[in-house]
From TrEMBL, chain A:
This is ABC-2 type transport system permease protein. Pfam families: ABC2_membrane_6 (PF06182). It comes from Thermomonospora echinospora. The keyword Membrane applies. Keywords: Membrane, Transmembrane, Transmembrane helix.
Automatic annotation (TrEMBL), chain B:
Keywords: Antibiotic resistance, ATP-binding, Nucleotide-binding, Transport. One of its GO terms (cellular component) is plasma membrane. This is ABC-2 type transport system ATP-binding protein. It is a peripheral membrane protein.
Length: 267, 319
């Protein structure tokens, strides 16, 4: 495991060095990515220019949801976003070339073509969290303070597992690239707003099937000391780490099954 | 080095027959193949498209697992110990590169070093050696996407051999290359085989590769081994005819000689097909008796012809 992480870092570093050979292009592309990533936040600000509350939540509270969701998503995207191109690798047969190397194809796909500009997308959530955390109307007990990093880490792990899970589907159905995006990018967008904004059954689905509610919503209810609009048990607020671990296990199984199912191309 | 016992691999292919209806057909890509390759051998693996060559290669490298039968490469079961095997085997796919399009060749090779965990000093020595043998120097700093096919293939060969594997598997390494590049690649492979003792398995459509490099040939057709043995015996076994090229002193109508067929006439030059069972010397003598001859040459059948014949007859040959 430690070995895999070392190798992962080494591969990322090689790609960063390659990109750094064109520093101007790297910085400009990074700024462009950061600007595009900030658009979601601008959308939230515009909404609050017209209304003081969204689904019962104030601007700092929603920005807190945005910041935690975006942070988790971007970190997961930086680490494993490359996996969304698995279908492409299957179709072009480049997966075969990865399979004959002594390294997990997951690491190879995740690092393939790694571009440092992906990291620039961290900028908006970092700025928002730095701004909003001190302004949050929360009663900062020790438990609530600890919950913030815990939710960021579990949220990241949940998104990372979703990347792997959706990639595994592409072993079998190669052309679902666009459909799987709705789970990953769609999930990132959904979790930027209070879940009370959505229909009840939809929220139940996001709690118990694709567990997006645990990315930030349930832990945030604890941090903000809010009752669950759906009246779900309060214990769920602390379930995020367990959910993240369980989803990882599911993703690992799916990945292995996908790899076993892989049939390669004709030539 | 490589031991294959009675492997089978079938694929289910779904074909659309109606709007929603699909028919499943089973294709036997590999249907009972067995062979062994000893250390240091250079084996050519031939077969028409769709015969099961690539499927065999994929089973040898652990990309696919055999439906039944056993495979041992360097003492390992490839599909179960894929990553362990990867350190002991080099693989080159002629149709796709293992290098990274956007990275300079040198960086690609550095990445490979990390992937295979080659120690820095050993890497430097090996890279210097391969750079010299394959003449990589002029394009080490060029991004892979800007390399010519021949340069890229040399880069791929270097990438496959950087970790100094005892086994090298090549899937059509000379496909699409020009004559000069082909010669470079062939010369390099020959040196790797003779000087380092690397066991090489080469699939190809280019029979020139086989004639130049391989002492032993395996031919696969319809998922089965049609021939396994050395090249000369293959020629003899398939009994392809030889061709006698005769230059007469002046243009003449086709010569007449019992058992010999005139295939082509071009001015004074005529091509005569001499069946394998006929004595060539006797034919030449008989010919010289009756016609004024300026020059004469006997051509052994090209391997193209031998193989076409083998495919066409669909027959099995035992060496």
């Amino acid at each position: 495991m430690a070995d895999a992480l070392r190798l992962y870092a080494l591969l990322i570093w090689t790609w960063i060095r390659a990109a750094a050979q064109f520093p101007v292009s790297m910085v400009l592309l990074g700024l462009a990515s950061a600007a595009v990533a900030a658009l979601d936040m601008v959308g939230i600000m515009l909404l609050f220019a017209h209304t003081p509350r969204i689904a019962g939540f104030t601007a700092p509270e929603v920005l807190f949801l945005y910041g935690t969701s975006a942070m988790s998503f971007v970190v997961a995207d930086v680490l494993l976003g490359g996996t969304e191109r698995l279908g492409e690798h299957v179709r072009q047969g480049t997966l075969d070339t990865m399979l004959v190397r002594p390294v997990s194809p997951l690491i190879q796909i995740a690092t393939e073509d790694f571009s440092p500009r992906r990291m620039a997308k961290l900028l908006p959530p970092v700025v928002v969290l730095a701004f909003v955390l001190p302004r949050l109307p929360a009663d900062w007990t020790a438990g609530r303070v600890v919950m913030v990093p815990v939710m960021l880490v579990s949220g990241t792990v949940i998104f990372a597992a979703l990347w792997v899970l959706t990639a595994s589907v592409q072993f079998v159905v190669i052309d679902v690239h666009a459909a799987t995006k709705s789970v990953t990018y769609g999930g990132a967008f959904l979790t930027q707003y209070p879940m009370s904004l959505y229909a009840r059954d939809f929220v139940r689905g996001m709690t118990f099937t694709i567990p997006l509610a645990f990315v930030n919503w349930q832990p945030a209810l604890y941090v903000l000391d809010r009752p669950d609009p759906l009246g779900l048990p309060a214990a769920l607020r602390f379930a995020a780490p367990a959910v993240a671990v369980a989803l990882c296990a599911v993703a690992a199984l799916a990945w292995r099954a996908g790899l076993r199912h892989y049939r390669s191309t004709g030539s | 080095m490589i031991e294959v016992t009675d492997i089978h691999k079938t694929f289910t292919v779904r074909t659309r027959t109606g709007r929603l209806r699909r028919r499943r057909t089973t294709v036997r890509a590999v249907d009972g193949i067995s062979f062994t390759v000893a250390p240091g051998e250079f084996v050519g693996y031939l077969g028409p498209n769709g015969a099961g060559k690539s499927t065999t290669i994929k089973m040898l490298t652990g990309i696919l697992s055999p439906g039944s039968g056993t495979v041992r490469v360097a003492g390992l079961d490839p599909s179960r110990r894929r990553t362990a095997l990867a350190r002991r085997i080099g693989v080159v796919f002629g149709q796709r590169t293992t290098l990274w399009w956007d990275l300079p060749l040198r960086d690609s090779l550095t990445l490979i070093r990390h992937l295979y965990r080659v120690e820095a000093g050993a890497h430097r020595r090996r890279l210097a050696e391969l750079t010299e043998l394959l003449d990589l120097g002029p394009f080490l700093s060029t991004p892979v996407r800007q390399l010519s096919l021949g340069q890229r293939m040399r880069g791929d060969l270097a990438a496959a051999l950087l970790h100094d594997p005892p086994i090298l598997v090549l899937d059509e390494p000379t496909i699409g290359l020009d004559v000069v590049s082909k010669a470079t690649v062939r010369g390099f492979l020959e040196r790797v085989n003779t000087e380092r003792g690397t066991t090489i398995l080469l699939t190809t459509h280019d029979l020139g590769d086989i004639e130049r490099l391989c002492r032993r040939v395996m031919i696969i057709d319809h998922g089965r081994l049609a021939y396994d043995g050395d090249l000369d015996r293959l020629r003899a076994a398939v009994a392809a005819d030889r061709v006698l090229v005769v230059d007469l002193e002046r243009p003449a109508p086709p010569v007449r000689l019992a058992g010999v067929v005139v295939e082509r006439v071009e001015g004074p030059r005529q091509w005569l097909r001499v069946p394998r069972e006929m004595n060539a010397a006797a034919v030449v003598a008989a010919l010289a008796d009756r016609y004024p001859i300026a020059d004469i040459a006997l051509r052994e059948p090209g391997i193209e012809e031998v193989v076409t014949r083998l495919y066409r007859d669909g027959g099995r040959v035992t060496a």
